[in-house]
Amino acid sequence: MPSMIHRLQSIVQEVGRSPDIQHALDLIANRLIHDLHANACTIFLVTNEEPPTLLLKACQGLNPDIVGTVERQFGQGLIGIVAERAEPINLTKATEHKDFILVPNSGEAEYPVYLGVPIVSHRKVLGVIAVQRSDNVFNEDDEAFLTTLAAQLATSIDHAESQGRFKLIGATREDRTEHIVKGVAGSPGMAIDQAIVLNRGVNLESVPDKKTDQTESEIQSFNDAIAKVHGDLTDQANRMRGVLPEEECALFVAYAQMLNSGSLIDDTHRRIAEGNWAPASWRDTIEEHAYVFEQMDDEYLAERANDVRDLGRRVLRKLMLEQSPYIDFPDRTVLVGDEISATDMADVPTDCLCAVLSAHGSGSSHVAILAHALGIPAVMGAVNLPVKQMDGLEVIVDGYSGSAYIDPSNGLLAEYRAYLLEEAEIEQDLLCLKDEPAETTDHHRIALYVNSGLMADHTPSLRSGAEGVGLYRTEIPFQIRDRFPSEEEQYAIYRNVLETFGKKPVVLRTLDVGGDKPLSYFPIKEANPFLGWRGIRITLDHPEIFITQVRAMLRANTGCENLQILLPMISDAGELQESLVIISRVRQELEEELGRAVKLPPVGAMIEVPSAVYQIDDICRLVDFVSIGTNDLTQYLLAVDRNNENVAGIYSSLHPAVLKAMQQIVQGAARNSTPVSVCGELAGDPLGVMALLGMGIENLSMSVGSLLKAKKVINSFSRVELESLLKQAMALGGARLVRELYAGELDKRNLGGFIRAGR
């Protein structure tokens, strides 16, 4: 008999290939009857109702008519007890238990031996699996098997849904229940528009479904790809003869023979004829054939599944060359993908891109920050996102709540269209503040700056009434190139932004790559990139990059005199001193080259590493200003990878510990008379603005789209009120309570529409 691990793997793999959830549940129930020698199996799933209930979705060994008719509340019956406690129950005489509820006409009275385990994902109970026997108690191995299966099942269902394996069930728009996915809020705002699925091409799993009526054209493209791969394999076999033994060359012959298989070709042709485009039809054919091999007990034959998938990728590479990528984006595009990058966003014209919806990533990832800068909503880490099925569907993206609604009903569309009108009214009302100062009701003036990094940001930033650039991300021009930009290219970029803002200060941050900001031409492979080689560490190790950038900055500042330089990821005073020595040397060399004086601009340090918090006095004595980077500071203080959707719910810059760390920075800067600003995403969050002003911070830098809302919040409170609220916030037990505290104060001033859909 196969081992437990092989039986588990077999079940999980079958679930992952099920076309819909009902098929998967029926399959599991049937397999458990066999693998655990049970007489009956029932599977309950939690509904989306309020309060949630447990509904019987599948059963084997009992009356099938009871499926869909049996419901249990949490804590009701044995099923409800398992769900409420989120732990297994193993009974020899379940029918005599005080919580046992007999389902009439089910037949379960004959099976008193009972084992029930919860299905749990991300601390949330999704359902319960129960098996029953007429005799023979379930032993520890049985319980371990079922518990392990339930844990893997939760993950597999999440993965299968995100890969589109569990199909969205069609219905008329009037009576359908919309498919809701929950992620985290990446960038505030709302959008109702057409989903365009990001297609990376050569990964079979990432190929989306796409309807087509060009059957003949798709079949011809597929046949051409098959012919090209067949030719490649023949050429490879011929080249390898004389280099490899004949038995090794046989692999290429075997691949060619597989390509000649009528079933591979015919099955793909059939799927194309049914209306799916060639890449997705080929994907499904390959998965179906690979699955057949995987189910074989013979280890050698089971390994042939890898050969089938390898062949599938070879054909897909050729096939995708025949397919035109999305070029004509809809006027309003919701970019959807498993994992979206900044360069993916750049592929969409900025006047077309209206929202981002990603299965991976977090609210503080670089993509979310870029979406914030563009003023578009983003939902990140939507782990159950059925990406493959979404191309062309209408989608509601709610960047306030971190929710998305796929193919929504007319009722929900009407509701969100009303929200959009309210949001437009709010934005219109805010325009009158553009030329007004940001000042608390007790007359404390606050300076508001913008975060930038794109040429397109400049005009909106000036029109918004920004007092300068508090953070210019110089890495963005590096990211959109296929090589390091030259000194002259950097000079032109920096000169443009310095001149555009006239005498208003512009803070240029030196190159900050690594972590979630890679350069394609400078790959960095590390087990933990956020704790590795990034920020100032890279530029100090590669002084040629640092020197070139500083030269371009100092040259660009000639005649403008509004430059300030910000150094990222400073973790100790030694790094800072080393950086300052290089900047001073570059200035001296430029003076010698140009034969005239070169002004040394103010230089500041980003405080975003916990060690810098405790060295704040030493750092302040070396620099002209400090800027708090709340994104990374939060990540490091809370030990949360901000791009990991599994822990995205823990990440919050409003956590009391983060607030206390920031207050330490502010107090240290005050002791040394060093100006302090905040340039992380917290500075543009209305709730964050309230907390930061309570600390005494008077310089905030944010995305241009957040500036007027921040100004309205500032103008609505006194410094005294916010200081009192901060004391209350730092005494609370967690970020959720802090958010509730500040949100309640916004509601009192009718500003709740700043942080949610609708006023």
How would you describe this protein?
Helices cover 44% and strands 16% of the residues. The longest helix is centred in the first third of the chain and has 26 residues, at 215-240. It has 26 helices and 23 strands. It folds into four domains: 4-162, GAF domain (Beta-Lactamase, 2-Layer Sandwich); 179-199 and 327-426, Glucose Oxidase, domain 1 (3-Layer(bba) Sandwich); 204-322, Orthogonal Bundle (Enzyme I, Chain A, domain 2), CATH 1.10.274; 441-754, TIM Barrel (Alpha-Beta Barrel). By secondary structure, it is α/β, with parallel strands linked by helices.
Topology, element by element:
Elements: H1 4-16, H2 21-35, E1 40-46, E2 53-60, E3 71-73, H3 77-85, E4 89-91, E5 113-121, E6 124-133, H4 140-162, E7 179-182, E8 184-187, E9 190-197, H5 215-240, H6 246-259, H7 262-273, H8 278-294, H9 299-322, E10 333-337, H10 342-346, E11 353-358, H11 366-374, E12 378-380, E13 394-398, E14 403-406, H12 410-430, E15 438-439, E16 445-452, H13 458-463, E17 469-473, H14 475-479, H15 487-500, E18 506-509, H16 536-541, H17 543-556, E19 563-567, H18 573-594, E20 603-607, H19 610-614, H20 616-620, E21 625-628, H21 630-638, H22 656-671, E22 676-678, H23 686-695, E23 699-702, H24 707-714, H25 719-730, H26 735-748
Parallel strand pairs: 9-10, 10-11, 11-12, 16-17, 16-23, 17-18, 18-19, 19-20, 20-21, 21-22
Antiparallel strand pairs: 1-2, 1-6, 2-3, 4-5, 5-6, 7-14, 8-12, 9-13, 13-14, 15-16
